[in-house]
Amino acid sequence: MKTEYLYKQPKTLLNKGTGFLTGYSHSLNPYTGCVFGCSYCYVRKMPVSLFRNKEWGTWVDIKKDAAEVFRKELLRARNKGPVTIFMSSSTDPYQPIEHKERITRSLLEVMAENPPDFLLVQTRSPLVRRDIDLLLRLGGKVRVSMTVETDLDEIRKHFSPQAPPIQARLKTLQLLKEAGVQAQAAIAPVLPSSEAFPDKLRPLVDRICIDDYFMGDGSSGKRTRQMGIHKWYEPLGLEEWHEPSAYQIVYERMKRVFSEEQIYISQQGFEP
Ligand code: SF4
Question: N or C: which end of the chain has fewer CB within 10 A?
């Protein structure tokens, strides 16, 4: 399907951290819309998507001259108090158009000059490796959270065919580690995975976060039920992985190779 790209001049970049992001003063979205179009993405049921009247995953607004707006906003926010930023809550900051547009990179450049108190970069894209130079300038004030919902690429293809392959994400975690950038693997939402998953992650990260639809959708599973996500499990015969208890399968497996202090559950794993 062809993606519709539009340039938009944003009035504001920093949004107040609310709901799931209570630990953050702000969220930051370099784009509106996301071509990864994951089947389980809640944003498709949020006003930003509903008012658009186009299928989620088929359109992206590019926030033109975002760095100029953001530079002023960041200065103002920092004068008022601590600034902790979640990037991004309703898009992937490293979706493919970022190769060319470099909006996320321009925001990181602003932050490298005037660092916030903490920045979480939430992505599932290997493109984040391009910005290792800037992430290193933020040092201990940044953590990259790489979504790795499963270790099985055929499962990834079923639930989010447009998203980057699992192997490329694991490789990126390795590069971040070698470079000395703080990172975690976010198994979020938990998808069906193999017994070997913990051993694949263990050399790459010292911190993992496990989250599922029921703890992490901000409505105790209501949104998930409205979206009918269980239908995606039926053709695979893997309905048991859509139970609220499924995250425990992964948790128990991870405990074999990670210590309990290294395993964060749901919201806890995304806190500054
Ligand atoms: S990458 Fe994130 S924002 Fe984009 S569609 Fe998937 S879940 Fe939604």
Answer: N
CA nearest neighbour of 125 among 158, 164, 91? 164
Strand residue runs (E) in the chain: 4-8, 14-16, 26-28, 31-32, 59-63, 84-87, 118-123, 142-147, 183-187, 208-210, 263-265
Q: Whose CA is closest to atom 8 on ligand 1? A: 41
Assess contact for 216 and 188: CB atoms under 8 A.
yes
Ligand 1 atom at minimal distance to the Cα of residue 91: 3
The answer to whether the CB of 109 falls within 8 A of the CB of 148 is no
Segment 38-69, tens digit of pLDDT: 999 999 888 889 889 899 999 999 999 999 99
Pairing of strands 59-63, 84-87: unpaired
Of the candidates 195, 200, 196, the one whose C-alpha atom is nearest the C-alpha of residue 185 is 200
